[in-house]
Amino acid sequence: MAKQSTAKEKMIKARDLIKAGRYSEARAILVTVSHPLAQKWLLKLDEIEGVSFPADVPPSQMQMVPPPPPPLQAEIVPPPQTHHVVLEQKGPGCLKWLFGGIFGLGCGVPIAFCGGIILLIIIVAALIQQGEKAATNEAIDRNDGRGTLEEPIRAGEWAIFEDGEVQSTRMIQPADDVIKEFNRYNSDSSEGAEYVLIWFKIKCNKDRCYPPLDLDLHLVDSDGTKWKEPLFITLDDDLDRKDGVKGSTLEGWQAFEFPTSETIEGISIKWGGETLYQEVPSD
Length: 283
Fold this sequence. Notes:
Elements: H1 7-19, H2 23-30, H3 36-48, H4 94-98, H5 111-142, E1 159-160, E2 164-172, H6 176-182, E3 193-204, E4 208-209, H7 211-214, E5 215-220, E6 226-227, E7 244-245, E8 249-259, E9 266-271, E10 274-278
Antiparallel strand pairs: 1-2, 2-3, 3-8, 4-7, 5-6, 5-9, 9-10
Helix pairs in contact: 1-2
């Protein structure tokens, strides 16, 4: 019996297909992966589908030619335990409204039932948030009281998580020229922004470690806004292409897109339900 592909193997295969310009095949794989990263890649495919290669590019050098960069966007984390829910006066459509039409659901029953469903979702979200807060507090205790944005883990030190350890040792800012050297088809950074490269090391303390699925990495500005990695940037020694087993150490570059008008206050590292902040290394 053939062994079923893991989410990690599917993501690697989809990424290779995307870089080869085989978007339909990549989409067919991504829709079978239940993970937020797969959903992000699917949304990006919606934007770029139909991109072709210049006629003068030989097959051996074909890599994805990205479209013009979209406007710079930040991922803003809402205040904890803040919920804005507006109930319709009649039953039909309340769940469809709640999910923004993502699942195409509607509710054709009395509003009390819809209200109960919405309340249940809020309770579950609050419990998840409470669990992650407790896990983060344990992680901060594990790091001698450091790991908050106000008291970050020092640059060069290991951030200790339950599943492993993370260290940032080097930063290049701006990194636009370096990223172009990695791959001349990498898109330019958005207007008013620049690329930043950070070299991470990861110690794996669980059976398997795969950074794209395990870690959520962001740069944080002075307002607490988090800036993430641009999709489909090809790097040499890409951290996202590394994986390892328990006891191994992985290392590689992670790219970020950050506004030129802001100052980097720290790195947000989320592994599992734990979030720790670390100082940025010297460039």
